[in-house]
Design goal:
By secondary structure, the chain is of the alpha+beta class. Helices cover 46% and strands 11% of the residues. The protein has a four-stranded antiparallel β-sheet.
């Protein structure tokens, strides 16, 4: 595998390879990634990611690209993991675990709620703000594909699965970066059997 200096680009390349994507497709998706370094300005990093996500959208099916991006999730250990494990350990009922996850702002953002249909809604920000920003790509000037946001979805999914003791499927409902700052980052999780 080609080595990329910027960690997020290297992680994307590694997870494309792990997913068994053909090398010619990986090369197309990763085009220009070697020119982005740690010291590259944030605007150029965001522009490269925008192009890479468009290439993924054009070259890979939805299920594959979302799985690749979920695998790119960061912040899976440390204090967040300790909190998620504590939620599971200290709460017997699912409803109590959801309530405890909702109170764990450091891990899950603004809110975690159980919907009437049994799915769980996670919101990084409250609705109704005048503007939202992506914490990962704060300098993105134009909307990016929602594909990018499955990385954050993977982060939330990892910790929420641990906290709830249930296997989950993730769907990104909206995001700051895909809406050009007009909508909050929200994720819907369905419990798998």
């Amino acid at each position: 595998m080609r080595r990329y200096e910027y960690g997020r680009i290297h992680t994307l390349a590694r997870n494309l390879e792990k997913a068994g994507i053909a090398q010619e497709l990986i090369d197309q998706i990763m085009k220009g990634g070697e020119a982005i370094g740690r010291s590259t300005n944030s605007e150029k990093k965001a522009e490269w990611m925008k192009g890479a996500m468009l290439r993924m959208d054009n070259l890979l099916d939805k299920e594959t690209r979302y799985a690749v991006r979920e695998a790119c999730a960061c912040c899976l250990g440390g204090k967040r993991l300790k909190i998620a494990k504590g939620i599971l350990r200290e709460n017997e009922k699912l409803e109590d675990r959801v309530k405890a996850a909702n109170e764990a702002r450091y891990v899950f953002g603004h809110s975690v709620t159980m919907r009437e249909d049994g799915r769980i809604l996670v919101c990084f920000w409250p609705e109704g703000l005048t503007e939202y920003r992506c914490v990962c790509l704060p300098k993105a000037k134009e909307p990016l594909s929602i594909t990018y946001c499955y990385c954050c979805g993977g982060h939330v999914k990892h910790h929420l699965q641990i906290a709830l003791g249930r296997k989950l499927a993730c769907k990104v409902r909206s995001s700051a970066v895909s809406s050009g700052g007009k909508k909050p980052c929200t994720f819907i999780f369905s419990m798998e059997e």
